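To whoever picks this up:

The parser on our side crashed when reading a file containing two proteins. I've narrowed it down to the boundary between the first structure block and the second sequence. Both blocks are reproduced below exactly, byte for byte. First block:
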Amino acid sequence: IEGADSFLWIAQMFAALAEEEDLVFRLYFPLRKKVIVRSDIGLFRAIMVNLVSDASKFTPQGAILISARKRGSEVLFQVWDTGVGIADEDADRVFDEFYQVDNQQRDRGRGIGLGLSIVRRALKLLGQDVTCRSRPGHGSVFEFRLPLDESADSGGGSGLGHGGGEGETETAFLPGQQDGRGGGETQGGAGPATWA
């Protein structure tokens, strides 16, 4: 899977949703060379759709950030949000089928509680796992890793962002959304500031 192409697909998928929900939607892709990961395109898309959809459901206002950063022989994918957050006692259970935090009325508008279980199952098929860090009232970050395809040609630009010199961040923003460049990153280099 080519990283930049995947990010552009995510942007096309969620541009309308972000605008409809009045959320800032940001993509953070600080990799200047083409990045190819070993994965199944169908499983990868299912993972991203469910993570971003869940983030939008539980973020009544604020921002969603999707990032991809190289970590050794892997790429770390993260979906950040400034939503309601998850309490420690619920952190593991959110990956169980049909489990939903604070939805005893089973409001179908908030889904049926399968999204994160699908994410975990898909990643297990890929030999990976998903983890979550969260602060109630501030937001959450879900993250997973995929291996780089070292045999693929990594030359050329990523096709995303504003370009720039060595070390500059390349970022793509969805149409109609503010670019968020005035601060708003955590000490890890990515993530909504209100989560930190």
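<<boundary where parser fails>>
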Amino acid sequence: TKLQSSLKKRSPSPSGRPTDPRREGWIYVMRMEGNSKHLKIGFSDVHPIDRQRALKRCYPGIILVAVSSKYFPHAHRAEVLIHTELAHHRRYHHCGKCGHDHTEWFEVSRDLALQVIARWVGWMQSCPYQLSTGELKVEWKRKMFRRPLSKRLLPAADHFLFDNTWQSWTDSRAVSGPRSEKEDTIDIYDRGYRSE
């Protein structure tokens, strides 16, 4: 699957050197005021409050919904995994202010978005990649080959089945420590938010 391909790829870093620190960062969720159906899910190497200020040039009513609780290595890779899992929900917004297409918008419930984010941020914070090379650690490579995942891409309606497959895979963290709960991986900012 596309997720398996993303998991296997090396982090962008020069061979034998520590991972590029610009790949460390935060994962955030934002929404537009008055629109609870579209969420912006992204990566930032600055705190998402600062990222929110920058985004107000294009989206004056943007609201910060949630942020990963820690600044962590390979955060950019976590973003790729989150976007890959939610690909069926992706929506593109052409911006009349800057003229660019904004590609990190998803038509998805807040609950599903936070569940997917908690899974991949929690897994990434368990350090599954070598910091020196950016490669997936041997124990996770073995696990991937030992328990192959479904080869078919599931439509959005089947996300529950797809979600359970990846949740069981990331939950079996015997090789890298105990499971983190959602509250340990995500800080909620927009507590009054309700999905419509």
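After patching the parser it read the second block fine. The first strand starts at residue 26 and ends at 32. Residues 2 and 84 are 7 Å apart (CA to CA).
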